[in-house]
C-alpha cells in the first residue's frame, strides 16, 4: 500500500470563492481569501500551477479574473482580467513556458496571454458550449477542448489556425438515429497520442489522432448517469471517472472493463485527480467533502469536511504555509465511514412482539380446516 504520509497537501476551489488548503501531514485546513466580502462572483472554477516548483497557484474565478496565489507567502499577489463574465465561466487554465497563460471559457473563446500584456496575443474559437480544456503534459503547446454538441478537438497553439485533430460524430444507433455527444472531461494518455474522454451520456471514449480513424477506437459505458470528471492513474492504463450521483469507478482502458468502484460519496463529483506518483485518488464535489481513496484496495484513507461546495482540486508536493490574519488554521477532523456505529450501539434495542391474528384472518383458515376434514 502507498505511504499516504508523503501526501503533503491538497488545494481546492469552492463555490463561495474561498481557496482551501488541506495539509494531510499536519491534519489542518486553511481558508484563503483576498476580499472581506464573499460573493458568488468569486466562485473558483479552475486551478493550475503557475510554475513547475508549485510556488504559484493560478485561480480562475467566475468574474473573469485570474488570481495568482503564492504558496510560499500564503497570500494572493496579483489579479489580472482574462475574460468577460458574459462569455461564461473558465473551463480550463494552463501555463506555457515563459509565464504565458492559456485560458478557455464556456463560449469557446481560447486565449493566450503574456504576463506583460493586458490583451491576448492569440485568440481562437473552439466552438460553443465548451465544458473542459486540458493541456498535454508531454507537449504543453497542445490543448484539447470539448463540450455539449462540440466534439473533441486538439489544438497546437504554435499553429492555432485550425485544430490538428477533430473527432468525427459517433455512428448512428441501431435505429439509424443520430447519437448526440457531450464531452465533459478529457485527458492525454501518457506515452501515446491518444486522448480519453468522458461524456454526459455515461460513455468513456478513446481517440487516437495518429490513426486515420477519427471516431473512438474504444467505447465503454459506465452506469446510467452523466459522467462529470476523469483522471488517469500514473501508469496510464486505468482511468478514474465520477458521475452526477457520486459514483466513482476505475476503468481498465486496455480491456474496457470496470475494475472496481470507490464508495462513500453522496453528491455529484466535480473534481478528480490521481496522484502522479502515489496510488491514491482525491475527489470532491457537492457533498463538501475532500476524500482520498487508495487505488490498490479502494479503501477510504482521508475524509475531510470543508463546509463549502467544491469545484476543483490539485495535489501538491509542498506543505502549506499557515496564513497570517483572520483565516487561521482549523484542525481537520478526519471522519470515518463507521463514525455513527457507536451511537446506534448505545441505543436500547426494541423488539417487536408478534402480531396476533385478527378474526378476519382466522375465519378463512377455519373454513379451510373444515374442507380438509370433509375430504
How are strands sequenced across the largest beta sheet?
28-1-2-3-29
Give the number of helices.
Answer: 2
- Count of strand segments: 29
| Low-confidence residue ranges | 336-341
Q: Which percent range describes the beta-strand content?
A: 35-45%
Separation of the first and last Cα atoms: 71 Å
Alpha-beta classification: mainly beta
Helicity level, as a percent range?
Answer: under 10%
Nearest-integer average pLDDT: 86
Rg on CA atoms, Å: 26 Å
General shape: globular
The largest sheet is: 5 strands, antiparallel
How would you sum up this structure, described in words?
The chain has 375 residues and is mainly beta. The protein is 6% helix and 43% strand. A 5-stranded antiparallel β-sheet has the order 28-1-2-3-29, with no helix packed on it. A 4-stranded antiparallel β-sheet has the order 4-5-6-7, with no helix packed on it. A hairpin with a 3-residue loop joins strand 8 and strand 9. The protein is globular, with a radius of gyration of 26 Å. About 2% of the residues have low confidence.
Key structural traits:
four-stranded antiparallel sheet, 375 residues, mainly beta, globular, five-stranded antiparallel sheet, 29 strands
Secondary-structure topology with pairs:
Elements: E1 9-14, E2 19-23, E3 28-32, E4 44-49, E5 56-61, E6 65-70, E7 75-81, E8 90-96, E9 100-105, E10 109-113, E11 122-125, E12 130-135, E13 142-147, E14 150-156, E15 165-166, E16 183-188, E17 195-199, E18 203-207, E19 218-221, E20 227-232, E21 238-243, E22 248-252, E23 257-262, E24 269-274, E25 280-285, E26 289-294, E27 300-305, E28 310-316, E29 330-331, H1 341-346, H2 359-374
Antiparallel strand pairs: 1-2, 1-28, 2-3, 3-29, 4-5, 5-6, 6-7, 8-9, 9-10, 10-11, 12-13, 13-14, 14-15, 16-17, 17-18, 18-19, 20-21, 21-22, 22-23, 24-25, 25-26, 26-27
